[in-house]
Amino acid sequence: MDYIKSPMNYIGNKYRIIGQLKRWFPKQIGTMVDLFCGGCDVAVNTAAARIIANDINVYVIRIFQSFQRLGLFATLDYIDETIAAWGLSKENKDAYLKFREHYNKSSRNPLDLYILMCYSFNYQFRFNEAHEYNNPFGANRSSFNEVMRANLVRMFPRLAGIEFVSEDFTRLDLTGLGPGDFLYADPPYLLTCGSYNDGKRGFKGWGEEDEQALYALLDRLDAQGVRFALSNVSHHKGRRHTRLLNWKAEHGYHMHRIAFNYDNCNYHANNRNAITREVLITNY
Length: 284
Ligand SMILES: C[S@@+](CC[C@H](N)C(=O)[O-])C[C@H]1O[C@@H](n2cnc3c(N)ncnc32)[C@H](O)[C@@H]1O
Description:
Layout: H1 18-24, E1 31-34, E2 50-54, H2 58-70, H3 72-86, H4 93-107, H5 110-118, H6 146-159, E3 162-165, E4 182-185, H7 208-223, E5 227-236, E6 239-240, H8 242-251, E7 254-258, E8 276-282
Parallel strand pairs: 1-2, 1-4, 2-3, 4-5
Antiparallel strand pairs: 5-6, 5-8, 7-8
Helix pairs in contact: 2-3, 2-5
S-adenosylmethionine binds next to loops.
């Protein structure tokens, strides 16, 4: 099957392994919750009667909500006009910095943030403590190119029916979910080098307490009869995710191996034993 790629190039996105994940997803889903949706690569590639996509990063959620509100043609017009008006290109650092200043100091328009991200280093959403976007320029590499445009166009029809929410996962009311429903959880990984953990994104990082709260939530959903799937790593750079493995064993959940090439993450670790094992844990 041909999967849709999010036009966000979101760090930690699951696009490359979506086919493997979906092998283990339920075939019939009433309500699907993508609890840590990020760039939304998983939600847009899942069929369900109702889809709820949540992320604590309210700025990313507002971009999706703007896409929905404006529709495809007005979105593309806005993007093209803004790029032309500000002279944005992958060579023009000065234009990028001026536009970033404009976004931070006056516009705060979610579509401007999307455009900024397209010209930024590694397409990342990074904010300072004042919630100003502070990712540097993606010189000679990043732009709203033809591939991004094509991905945006292809994603639009799938976005239409998704309900976007921005909450800390512990604050979502999931008590209405039951048998027939499905929750996918792709949290920041405690063991890996993802930059969510460093607290530099203007949002709180991810720590042991969050991990524990997530396991407790998944146990409650299990008791409600809701099916869940949790992405994570069981091993990383020679370390074993003992807490995860114990929790899984204690509750009799199932663990599936997922092939994932972590080269980008391991560039500084030349150790052959430093394996990373991506897994999917399910309660069904
Ligand atoms: C690995 S990424 C998800 C990537 C996504 N599955 C994709 O394919 O693009 C993890 C996400 O969790 C979000 N997050 C971190 N802490 C959170 C929290 N406490 N509640 C909700 N979302 C959170 C981050 O903002 C980030 O977008």
